Amino acid sequence: MIKSYLITDPLIFGGTSETLRASLTIAIEKHSPDFVCLRDKSAKNYESLAREVMTIEEEFRLLLHGDVDLAIRLDVFGVHLSSSQFHEIARAKEAGLYVIASTHSYEEALAAIEADAITYSPIFFSPNKGIPKGLEDLKEITGKINTKIFALGGILSSEQIGQVETCGVYGFASIRYFLN
């Protein structure tokens, strides 16, 4: 079975401690994701949101989005870096963090090769995320890259999870799937 990676979005999971905790707790209890990324690019209270997520008693590995220093300070499992943060991979790994990096092309995947894993997206249609790469492209990149790959983008159903699994990925990542 491939790994599952829940990525939060404040518009969907909520932007306050209470709404985030409530929706995330339900999603985690229902789907038991292996990894959870707290992603909120505009929160002024990101640290308090992270601390709230850390109190959820269900078992998962927490990654913070884009903030290596906070991930180190809070001693979370890891960090999810954007494609403009590849220069942070070595520092995050030296600090003992598990590193997942966002990639959208073969060239970016090569640039992020030192990460523990990458997300590769979008595989299927996802609003405002560009033209889907598709399954053939995903299969091709899994054959070229030795880094663990999470398929990301438009994964909403068990059928789609099965499709990306046949491409040889390590796992799948999604926001909306975990709300089903």
Label the structural class.
alpha/beta
Radius of gyration (CA) equals 15 Å
**How much helix is in the residues?**
25-40%
Main sheet characteristics: 8 strands, parallel, barrel
Q: Termini, distance in Å?
A: 19 Å
Q: Looking across the biggest beta sheet, what order are the strands in?
A: 1-2-3-4-5-6-7-8
* CATH superfamily placement: Aldolase class I
Content of β-strand: 15-25%
Descriptive report:
The protein has an eight-stranded parallel β-barrel. It has a single domain, classed as Alpha-Beta Barrel (TIM Barrel), CATH 3.20.20. It is built from eight helices and eight strands; from the N terminus they run βααβαβαβαβαβαβαβ. Helix 2 runs parallel beside helix 3 (46-54). It is globular and about 40 Å long. Helix 8 (158-165) links the parallel strand 7 (148-152) and strand 8. It starts with a strand and ends in a 6-residue tail after the last strand. The model has no long low-confidence stretch (mean pLDDT 96). 40% of the residues are buried. It is of the alpha/beta class and 180 residues long.
